Amino acid sequence: KIKLYASGGMLFENESYDRLIDEAIRYKDLGYMGWKFRPKVPVANLSHQQRIKNPPDFDMTKLLFFCEKIRKKVGDSFNLMLDCGCRIKNIQKSTKLFDALNELNFLFVEEPFKRKLSNYLKFDKKYKTKIIAGGENFNGYKSFLEFSKLNSVKYIQPDTNLLTFWDLSQIIKLKKNISIHNWCNKINFSMNLNFALSVNNDDIILEHNIIKSPYNDLFEESYRIKNGHAYLK
């Protein structure tokens, strides 16, 4: 069995973060090891690709206020994660966010900056605490190797759908925590679960996207989920 964290927490910029509280508590009660959410997205509903290419700003003050609130609601033992979606543009100002999330015992911050290693190298010179997660877009071992050398990187996030068997065999040898990335569909999840179960590492965690996908009704599940863990049938 593999430990799951619930990946959801999406809402528009004209909605209240408080709408996410019930979702976090629900997945804590279901036995998940943690819950990941995102800063509010523009009402224009830019696609994932558009947000990565031209990351929209977000109100950091409102976000941090909610981070404090949700930590109090779920308690100290439940893991919280923040997926920034490459939306932090000022590396120097970002330390305010990371300091606050460290104090709130967040497990990691995913993809805070644009997907260029140079951005993370600049940040790494200023900030040494291990809190960053990334790598969902990497399609080779070399990228993971370079990324994993950064002191601030805590989790690498491979996706089996982008990598060869050889790449995967090398990635699992890296001395970093592994949080396997997933998109919102059952086939992607099944492949990554199969890989996770084949690796002798009890510390691997797996993203379970709780955002409903229109493709889910087309396919049968090859797995079952119970008490926040995933098993192959």
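That was protein one. Protein two is written in the same sequence-then-structure order:
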Amino acid sequence: MIDMSKLIVAGCSVSDYTNVKKVWGEYLAEQLNYEYVHEAAGCGSNYRMWRVLTTHILNGNITANDTVVVQYTTLERNEFWSPIVENDWLRDPAFNGNIIRFKSGSHTWAKGSEKKLMKLYERFINDDFEKEKFANNHMMFQCLAKEYKIKNLYFVKLGAYGLEDLLFLPQYKNNFFNYSNIFDKSENHITNDRYHLSDIGHKLLSTMIYNNIKEST
């Protein structure tokens, strides 16, 4: 019996189940006839994407037969380990505690010492430094994927999330799909929320990515 190829999607809330029952990654997996692995998360950071995907690769859960799509998010986001354990969709249980997610303004909903941490951390963010760190980690992740012969690695930009001027290794130079305008039409985003896709938007995006993948291969 041959294992089915997998589609692994990493991203933030725009690729997660944000007021929808089915995400573009699921639709895309159906079009490709692949097993779907969902690694997008609300308030997720680029560091979370690199960490989770790298762990999958090192553990052999992502192989050369699989397809990986990375939806980068804003650069200031990060994640921290906390000894406080709570059942919260913004947390991942790990290492006898929780990994908590940070983005600008996250101190407004955090509590206790975590609230203090996030509010203080926000004072120590520099945009140019974040861009340098992002560029370096983005390139290192590509090198890892190349080393493990993961040729079907794609990157997508949705709306204002992520950057447009990304550097790529030669084998991935045609694997960047820019959908900066996807939220322009009201039917593509949730009512009164121009930052998250509607059901129509998720279906549309899956078809666009499917067509772009076929064109790039």
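The radius of gyration is 17 Å. Keep this in mind for the problem set.
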